[in-house]
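SEVERITY: medium
COMPONENT: batch folding queue
REPORTER: lab tech (J.R.)

DESCRIPTION
The queue accepted two submissions in a row. Attaching both inputs and their returned C-alpha cells so the on-call engineer can compare them side by side.

ATTACHMENT 1
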Amino acid sequence: MRLEYTDRQQRFRQEVRDWLEQHVPKQPLRSFDTEEGFADHRAWEGKLAGGRWSAVTWPKEVGGRGCDLIEWLIFEEEYWRAGAPLRVNQNGIFLLAPTLMEYGTEEQKQRFLPRMATGEDIWAQGWSEPGAGSDMAAIRCKAVRDGDHYVISGQKTWSTRAVWADWLFGLFRTDPESVRHHGLTFILLPLNLPGITIRPVQQLNGQTGFAEIFFDEVRVPVHNRLADEGAGWQVAMATAGFERGLMLRSPGRFQQTAKSLVELYLRHQAHADADPSVRDAVMQSWMGAEAYALATYRTASRMAKGAQIGAEASTNKIFWSELDLLMHETAMRILGARAELMPHAPDAGDIGNWLDGFLFAQAGPIYAGTNEIQRNIIAERMLGLPRS
C-alpha cells in the first residue's frame, strides 16, 4: 500500500503544523491525573477550540472543521509529532461525541457538544462496576423511573477522569426484571448532583486517574437519556466501537513512540546489541506502528465509501494494546535498571517518560474491553466459531 496525499491534504497538514508550532507549550504540562494538571489540560482544550482544532471531524456549527477521517489522521500525526499535550477530554470528544451525533437529539447536540469542545465540560466514563468489569451485560447499577426523572442507585468503578470531571456517561439498568444486555439505558449526568460520592482510585504511579462513584438515590432528568429507554446496549456498543476502532488510539501516537524507541536504541546501541532480541523487538515495534497506520488508513478509506466498523474493531484493539506493551517493554530492556527512575530523579538522564508509558501500557489489554473478551468476539462474530 502506498500513501499519496492530495494538494489539499498537504496544505491542511502544513496548516496544522504551523498552528501547533506556534501554540504547543514549550514545557510539558503537569499530569492531568493531578488537580493542577487537570486544570492545565482543560485550558489547553480551550486553546485548541479557539483555533477550531479541538474536534476537527465535528460539523462546523458545533465547533469542528468538518474534516474527513483522512484529514483527522493527518491532524493526529502532526499532533503527536509536535509533542502536544494529552487530551484530558478524550472520553467526551472521541467516544461520547460520535455517539451523540448518531443517537442524540438536536437539543442534546447543541447542549453538550460546544461545551465539550472548549473543555468547559470534561466527561468521565461510567461503564465498569465491582461485579461488571469487562462484562458490561452484568451491570446492576439501577435507574428507576419516577415521573420525569430517573432515580439512580448503585456504584461505578474504574471511572476514567472522574475525580475532577464535570459529567459522566454510562449504562444503567432501568428494567429490574431484565437480564444481561436487555433493559439497559444510556444516561448522561452531571457529577455534582446530590447523592453522588466520588472516591479517587490511586494508580501505580500514585496519581488518581480513576475513581469509584457511589449513587444514593440520585435524581437525573429523563431528557438526559440518550436514545430510547432499554436501548442502552446498542448505544454503548456504538461507543465501544469508536473506542476500540479508530478514534481513541490514532496511529500517530504509536508511530511517534516507535520513532522515540528507535532513537533510544541508537543512543544505547553499544550495550543493547549484547542481546540480539532487543534489536529485533525495536524493528518489530517500528514495523507494527507502520502496519497499524496503513491498516487504519485503509479502514478510513472504506468508511468514506459507506462501510461501517464492525467486529473488526476488536482486532484493532488487540493490536494497538499489545504493540504499546511491546514498545515500552523494549524501552525498559534498553534502559536497564535506570528505567525504574522517575524522570525528575538526579540520575535519570535521558529516560524521559518511558516508565510512565510502561505503567500505562499495562492497562491497554484491559480497558476498552479485555483482550480475552475481544478474542471471543473475533472468534464468534468474525470467524463464526461456536461458543464454548
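ATTACHMENT 2
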Amino acid sequence: MTAEQWIDARGVRTRVLTAGPNGAPPVLLLHDGGWGASAEMSWERVIPVLAREFQIVAPDMIGYGGTDKIGFFDRSGVKVRTEHLLAVLDRLGIESAAFVGNSFGGTIAVRALADPEARSRISAVVSISGTGGPWKTEKALSELTRFDGTRKDIERYVELLGIDPEDAEYVDRRLAWAREPGHYETMLAAHLQVPDVFPRSSPVSQDLFPESLRGVDTPTLLIAGRDDDLLLSEWTRHLADELAAAQIMVMPTGHSPNVSHPDDTARMLGQFLRSHLVPQPTAE
C-alpha cells in the first residue's frame, strides 16, 4: 500500500509517496520534469510491483506536485534538486538508495553520479529517457517548454511524452497538478532569457558533460524508447562510453514507458535492481 506524507527536507516542505517493507533495499523514484509532473504521475503504475521487494521513496521534486514551489537563480536546477533529494533521504533515515528516474528524473540521477558526495549515496542508477541534458530533438526543444493551461494542451503534452491522451483520468489529474499555485512560475524560471552581461552561475550547459562521468563504476541501466521522438537515438551510447558499468536496453515505446507500459517497465527495473541490490537466490 502506498502512503502519502509531508516532510521537512532542510526547510523544503516536501510531499513523498512511500511503499514497501522497511529494511528492504531503498529505491528513490524520480518523476519527469514536465508540466503537471508529480511522483504518482510517473510512478503510480510501477510502485505496487516494485514495493513487493524494495523500499520505495517517490518524492515530488522542488516546484512539482505538493512540494514547495521555490526557485534558486544562483545555481543549476539540477544541483538544487539533487541536494533536496539527499535531504529527503536524510529525513527518512536512508543512507543510500538506487536512483531511478524518467526523463528529467533520469537526468537528475545521471548527473548526480558526477558529484562524488551524491555518488556515495547512490547504490545504482536507472535512467529512462533521461540524457543528462543534451541530445534532445528539435521537436522536444520547440514543444516541451510551452503550455497554455488548458486541458487540450495538457493532452498535447502527455501525447508528446508517449502517454495515451485518451486516458481521461490521467489527463485530468496531471492538469490539476499543472494548475497548482506556483508551478507555472517555477517551470518558466528555468527558461528566463538573461542578457549576456549577466552571466549565470554554474549553468549545466557549460559544464564538462558527459566527460564528468568518465570512469564512474556505479551500476547503471540506460533505457531508451525505440519510438521516442524527443531524444536523439545515440544518447545512450554517449553516456555508456563514459560510464564503466552501464547497460543499455531499448523498449518498443515512447518517452515514458513507466506510464504507457508499466508492467514491462516494472519487470525490467526489478530484474536490474534485484541483481545489484539484493543477493540472487541460490538454486536448490
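NOTES FROM REPORTER
The first strand starts at residue 3 and ends at 9.
No errors were logged for either attachment.
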